[in-house]
User: What shape does this take?
Amino acid sequence: MLWQDATDILRSLVQTPQFGLITDVDGTISPIVPDPDEARVTAQNRRLLEELGKLLPLVAVISGRAAADVQARVGLPHVLYVGNHGFERWVTERAEAEVVPEVAIFRPALEEAIRALRPLLIPGMRLEDKAWTLSLHYRQTADPPTVAMAFRPLVERIAGECGLVLYEGRMVFELRPPVKVNKGTAVRAMVRNYKLDAALFLGDDMTDVDAFVALRELREQNLCRAYGVGVLSVATPEPVLDNSDFVVDGVVGVETLFGWLLNARKASST
Assistant: This one.
């Protein structure tokens, strides 16, 4: 369902005093680009998040990127930054990231995986060490589909040998510690910690499905009126469409939705 067809529900959510807005970064508030280091949050999304952060009990950004990376790219006050799919959060008072304790013990395993993967890299491939997870990007290789097929069993074998778990995103392999922490557990914690009665999460990729599922469960358990918004693109994975409650058309569409939410929230306070 297009979000424009659900404005009655969305208005009810955003006008709830304890409403939280949670968003992914890449492909949601920032366009997907060939080089992840060049990704930028659009000026309009950044402005709207800043305004919403002044009005809402919670505005949070959660990403597969490291928490420090997310904080630097968004760089707004009144925003909670969660990185590595929920493994860490940015602590503003200390200007540093705080990792989930059970994740920290897997740093040696990640270093072992780095040593195994580096000799396998081909032109256009980049191995990103995010301290608590690893990302093997292959978007800039000559033939990404063929590379994915060839490397999947190799990366899966290395993950298993190192005691890690393999996940896949948009043209990226991710190795993570086998700890039950993901975007779903992260949004559940936000709802609990901020005592939210209503929440909205936006995401566009496979790792966001955990959050969509968690939100639906919270709603069905009558713990929070929580909904998920899938961000559409030419490469939107089918599970995103299957598990989100509403959809929005691309990053520009997210700007429109944020603007609508801001106006609706302001209207409730007048």
About this structure: The mean pLDDT is 95. The chain is about 40% helix and 20% strand. The first strand starts at residue 19 and ends at 23.
